[in-house]
Amino acid sequence: MLPEQLTEHLNIALPPLLADKLSGTGVTDLERLSGGANNETWRLSWGATPLILRRRPFSAGAVANLEGNILGLSLLDEAQVIQLASHTAVPVPTVYGVFDEHHPIGEAFIMAFIGGESIPQRWLTEAAFAPARDQLAYQCGEALAHIHAIDCANLPGTIGPTTLTRRFEAAQDRLHAFGNVSPALQFGLNWLIDHAPADTPHVLLHGDFRTGNLLINNNGLCGVLDWELTHQGPPGEDLGYLCAHVWRFGQLQNPVGGFGDYADLIAGYESVAGWSPDLNTIRYWEIFAALSWGLVCQTMGALWKSGQGDVERAAVARRRSEAELDMLLLIDEWED
Q1: What digits encode the pLDDT tens for the residues 149-178?
Q2: Domain of 89?
Q3: Using an 8 Å Cβ cutoff, are 284 and 197 in contact?
Q4: CA 176 to centroid of chain Cα atoms
Q5: HSE on the CB side for 160, CA within 13 Å?
Q6: CATH no. for residue 161?
Q7: Measuring CA to CA, which residue among 294, 280, 256 is closest to residue 334?
Q8: Left if phi > 0, otherwise alpha if psi is -120 to 50, otherwise beta: which for 182?
Q9: Roughly how many angstroms between the first and final C-alpha of the chain, as a whole number?
Q10: Residue range 266-277, pLDDT digits in tens
Q11: Cys bridge to 320: 129, 218, 253, 297, which one at CB 3.0-4.6 A?
């Protein structure tokens, strides 16, 4: 959708939603932000107030509806989860309104803008963010523990419990759907099945809690973004996902997101949850995250080939080999 069209639709939809919340008479400064291979993110102003619109540019039916579909939640359900998180100590934006897929805007929701730096290449390396990085792993542990404490009984019905066996089956289905073109991903899946941890009680997982989806200021963590992959699962999954190689953005010496140490992450989690996550379990889920990223790359390629998406999805698809190598190296370290 062109910016001019989107502005027109927003100027019709927003006044009744914002009339008693924010002053303003129309949309200005609308611009699409970079990033986001599944959904579009637009920044705009309503009066003097900056806002963010998250919008899905295509139908979830564009990809086979396999369990574990990378498109994740509908944006309506994502907005509801953010609203649940807003009642905890997790820093999330206020959601002002949602639109379903039949609305002229398309499936979307409008929310507050949170100031902070999101670009990893800046806050992972620039000296100005050094004090923030020093405490960030601990803060991430705290935030994840708060997320995991959200009562799953309040979740949308689409976010139900599952089992690791079903997750394995979903991954196998996706490998079959892509023609079994990656022996490395198949090897990784087989290894994960053979080394699966014992079942543990499921909690609400963010599902995409990582460098790139965190907002950082001088005090550290100031925003947690992109809840579209929220699901239920074991707590170690979120912790291991944050530590995956792909989300370290080249800072491989710092296992937690490219900025911190395992010990600080675990300590922060324990300070809220009252128990200490097991490091081996976290490392298992790092390997699972590498497999998942490889499957994301495959799916992005399929989306692009189908005509559903731009060159960004094609660029992601080319990174499958990176996921394969990460997974094999992590398995080799484990076996040593």
Answers
A1: 999 999 999 998 889 999 999 999 999 988
A2: 3-112
A3: yes
A4: 25
A5: 6
A6: 3.90.1200.10
A7: 280
A8: beta
A9: 52
A10: 999 999 999 999
A11: 297
